[in-house]
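Bug #77: duplicate submission created two jobs. Keeping one. Sequence:
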Amino acid sequence: MTDPDRKTFLVTGAMGCIGAWTVSHLLRKGHRVVAFDLSRNTRRLELLLESEELERVVLEQGDLTDFGQVAALFERHSIDHVIHLAALQVPFCRANPVLGARVNVAGTVNLFEAVRRSGLPHMAYASSVAVYGRPEPDSSDPLVEAAAQSPLTLYGVYKQANEGTARMYWADHEVSSIGLRPHTVYGPGRDQGITSDPTRAMLAAVLGEPFTIQYSNGFLLQFASDVARQFIEASQDPERGNFVFNLGGEARSMSQLVEMIQEIVPEARIDFVDNKFPIPELVDSSALRQHFRRVYETPLESGVEQTISMFRELVQKGRLSAGGESH
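Kept job's structure:
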């Protein structure tokens, strides 16, 4: 007999950090997961899943920029919910703007169109605080969702375009969506992109290696497990419309984060350079709290402890080494 509570979730970008955590949480809730990614590298999934769990994931390798491949997913699988996380990050968009636009912008359009044609009413997708750009120098107020946008990276421009795509698919076709804007995500599996430095510093501490964080300003730090759970909630949200929400978290400077790591690993050799990274340090997440009955926010001290504890266990088991590579 089929379990009526067991749903099929399509997760794009499933081999990324948030994707791996999303797959992990869905599997442990008893759901079926179709993991779509151009990469075959399951190393981040292997950090979070045992081999028998990984065998339960339906791995679909494919190219988000090919509409035929995206549409075929909905023909092959009875998809109930969609979580769109696939994207090229800041350095890759800078290095190859054409590919960045194809993946991040055209790929997102492909997914919205496939959702529309399949008849699904709703999807969740990843935006970013990179849509804002540099905050006003004299302002210390957290930025609300409707604050002026002036992205300073192509990645931010592409995410801004995706929010516009979501708005128009609701206006033209009543495809409902929720976009979430993560800030600085940390936790096992976060090993790529400029804002991965806090996590890489935690791993270096466990490995006994020196590490220099490349910026000094404080950010909202968000535990990857929490971000994944919020995306799962967003994908199942019953309220229809076009929504975009900032994710909350705890704002700490890099000096405070280094002190926190060194309290857990006293011998850690972590420092940072005096360099300001051009994204807002604080955003307002009150709209998120008003919309969702449950908001996932692990206290930072607990999240850092959990991350370091997981790294220690993975290293002891020989499943993780320098650079975040799993074995």
